[in-house]
Amino acid sequence: MMRRGYCVGLFLLTVVCAPVLAEKETDYLAVFMEGKKVGYSVHTRSVKDGKVTTREKVSITISRIGIPVTIEMTETNVETTDGKPLRFESIQLLGAVTMKVSGVVKDGAVDMVSSQFGAEQKSTMPWPQGALMSEGLRLLTLEKGFAPGVEYSASIFSPGVVQAVTAKVSIKDKKDVDLLGRVVKLTEVITSMSMPGAGNVVTTSYVDDEMRTLKSVVPMAGMVIEMVDCPKEFALGKNDVLDMIDKMFVKSPETIKDVHSTAAITYTLNPGQVSDLTLPTTDNQKATRTPEGKVVLEVRPVAAPASAEFPYKGSDPALLEATQPTRFLQSDNEQIVALARKAVGDTKDAAEAARRIEAFVADYIDNKNLSVGYASAAEVVESRQGDCSEFAVLTAAMCRAVGIPSQVVVGVAYVEDFGGRQGFGGHAWTQAYIGGKWIGLDAAFKSSSRGGYDAGHIALAVGNGEPGDFFNMATALGQFQIEKIEIERTK
Question: Of the given ranges (28-32, 163-167, 320-324, 439-443), which has the lowest mean pLDDT?
Fold first, then answer.
């Protein structure tokens, strides 16, 4: 099963901005999930030599079936005093894995260095036009003012996902706000952020007259996440235990016996009050909306066409992109290339090559545990450990290494027993483009008695395994119920 604490930590860094006016200031906030204190945030801002340095650190600890996992993320932005971006850094400690991305902004471009397991990758990308970092956002807020009724939009660059997100800000009236027993009158600010692959995420913040964010509230995956200003000793103090497994499950209206033998499953989903619930349409699943607002989703796994060749030699831009290395799918890594060639052997058939890679990864990861935060394919090659997302990124990277277009899919999958639970749990798998069709691969289930990809998988997002790709899964969980299941068995 996939971890969601990572999504939450990165999400908090993206949506919580705490602009301050002082020359040097440090704010401490406690992070609560479902009413339990699970971590802290430390925000600092300093001005020196004509440069403004803003740093935000978030640390959360959650439990998955009694296994604690700590996720720490620190983002640093350096800007001029008039808000022009100069450089940034993101350090993400995901369980036992550390990732670092730094970038220098100059002449409309960003020179970036990514490091994982001590290996560095350099790249250059255009700076998103008009994108602001922390100081630029603070200055824009000052310019627009805090009068009730003020509304404005901004493009905010997030080092954690290495792209800009669009935010719409609306200033409301002042309200009495409870800050852990201390009631303060603060200005309510509603921020709607268009997250990559996840639609709009709405955050309610409460800000004092010095523009310090003292409380933020955001609904996510059926939970309420809060960050509350507090003394340093409490913020950094002992955390409660919150097991995330229950929050990652969607109840099934019935038991699905021998799910791997099904030809197709049709799900009737009730999105409740969420009118914009959108599920991706792929070669394996198709969604339609009923007049009553419910979503009917048919999952019918397609078989890989025989005699399809690889590597891919077409010109489709999306497929070509799906053959390229990324910072999580390092298909140009020497070890990954060697493993992919070893797995594929002498076959010339793309479907057979993909099946061999799936089986190889199923055996290669020999330490299956939930303690890894979120690892890239190169890290999995070294550690040979992890859970579903580690299986998925390594499978996708190895497919790309031999020229088979591939993507990482995140969603939920049916399980009869996971820690005593039955239903649909957060999951990650792979899809490979073979002979004109996207074919599902699931090395994690292949390594168990499940057998691999089947109609018990519901995709919520598809991408390159980047952090932004996981927001859709994280936000969609808790937004729908499965009311009905219709099973079509193989003949």
Answer: 163-167
Nearest-angstrom CA–CA distance, 361 and 78: 41
**How much is the average pLDDT of 175-186?**
94
Do 236 and 255 sit in the same domain of this protein?
no
Q: Does residue 286 share a domain with residue 203?
A: no
The SS3 assignment for 270 reads strand
Q: Which residue has the tokens 């798998």?
A: 429
Indicate if 204 and 258 belong to the same structural domain: no
Q: Are residues 223 and 363 in the same domain?
A: no
360 & 221 share domain = no
Residue 43 contacts residue 66 (beta carbons within 8 Å): no
Q: Peptide bond before 311: cis, by omega within 30 degrees of 0?
A: yes
| Cα–Cα distance list, 421 to 164, 284, 328, 377, 424 (Å) | 38, 26, 30, 29, 9
**Per-residue pLDDT band at 195 (split at 50, 70, 90):** low
List beta partners, residue 280.
none
Q: What is the pLDDT of residue 9?
A: 47
- Residue entry with tokens 């073979």: 434
At 467 the pLDDT is: 62
Nearest to 38 by CA among 79, 68, 76, 7: 68
String of DSSP letters for 361-381: HHHH--EE-S------HHHHH
Output the pLDDT for position 212: 84
Q: Are strands 385-386 and 367-368 parallel, antiparallel or unpaired?
A: parallel
Identify which has the larger pLDDT, 29 or 70. 29
Range(s) of the domain holding residue 296: 248-489
**Per-residue model confidence as pLDDT tens digits over 128-146:** 999 999 999 989 988 998 8
| Domain-ending residue, one of 202, 226, 244 | 244
Query: For residue 151, what are the CA distances in angstroms to 89, 157, 174, 399, 457?
Result: 30, 20, 16, 47, 41
Tell me what pLDDT residue 419 has: 66
Name the nearest CA neighbour of 394 among 446, 435, 461: 446
197 and 285, same domain (yes or no): no
Same domain, 96 and 236: yes
